[in-house]
């Protein structure tokens, strides 16, 4: 009996990107894994940057939601070579992992803002 | 077979660890800087996640039974997605058990089994959150530990202002806000790294109305 798909799927985002670079097909689940980590990293990084440079107000929230939704799209289509239809459409790509990344963003932004406030 | 005794040992370990940290903290002189208070709350949040997820990994996540269950559910999720794709193209299933409905039924029963297996991690998570709130609340109730860079609204407003006096600024954050944000983020990341949740394609959406309709169908 061969290994199940569940045990053979890649979980490291770097390994998945390397797989796409080698020309192999990336599955929907692997693409979701990359989206999660890309959005999470983006949320934490943007939160730290915004806190450091002193961004205040809802403009920060709105700008993160816009950037967080849009930035990963070219990674899916150009780097992973996954079609939008495979992921269930562009809206699904925009939404995948955005909510949790938002929590990370607000946390990082609040902590950095507090740290650099007088 | 993991027992209630194991869950109690785990919950006690969580409580003792957090109390030990709180006791060590009492020996230091009290801090007046908001940044130091924030750092302490962050440490408590990180520790509660590490302890609860570490114990969950030790008692449940690393076991072969759990890993086999997760892999089976993920496999069924992939099979279900393929079966639905074929049915959408009008291709009929070759065998009876390969139809989307049959696979979905298997998936639902496996998912229910997984929920039972995850009862101990759920209890440990709840215990760690309760203990964190109790310990951190005891030290930081009424203190502003964070400056939120925007004015929270709706539910976030209540959470941000929890434990703060009535005259606090709208952008003042109490311990609860930081604790919930940081522990939620860290817990999600740790669980993702440990691969303890089924993939999205294997997560069967079950609405309470759907369950009620299923129950009515069985009774009629």
What brief labels describe this structure?
heterodimer; A: 118 residues; mainly alpha; 7 helices; 0% strand; B: 220 residues; two-stranded antiparallel sheet; 2 strands; disordered C terminus
Number of strands of chain A: 0
Determine the N-to-C terminus distance of chain A: 64 Å
Oligomer description: heterodimer
> What's the overall geometry of chain A?
elongated
**Radius of gyration of chain B, taken over Cα atoms and rounded to an integer in Å:** 23 Å
Greatest contact pair?
A: A-B, 31 and 33 residues
Beta-strand segment tally of chain B: 2
Helix content of chain A: over 70%
Order of the strands making up the biggest sheet of chain B: 1-2
**Low-confidence sequence ranges of chain B:** 206-220
What is the tally of helical segments of chain A? 7
Shape by Cα distribution of chain B? elongated
Taken in chain order, the helices and strands of chain A follow as HHHHHHH
**Class by SSE composition of chain A:** mainly alpha
The share of residues in helices of chain B is over 70%
Structure write-up:
Chain A is mainly α and 118 residues long. Helices cover 71% and strands 0% of the residues of chain A. Chain A contains 7 helices and no strands. The longest helix of chain A is centred in the middle third of the chain and has 26 residues. Chain A is elongated and about 50 Å long. The termini of chain A are far apart. Chain B has a two-stranded antiparallel sheet with strand order 1-2. With 220 residues, chain B is mostly helical. In chain B, helix 1 packs antiparallel against helix 2 and helix 2 packs parallel to helix 7. The chains are: A mainly alpha (118), B mainly alpha (220). At the A-B interface, helix 1, helix 3, helix 4 and helix 7 of A face helix 2, helix 3, strand 1 and helix 7 of B.
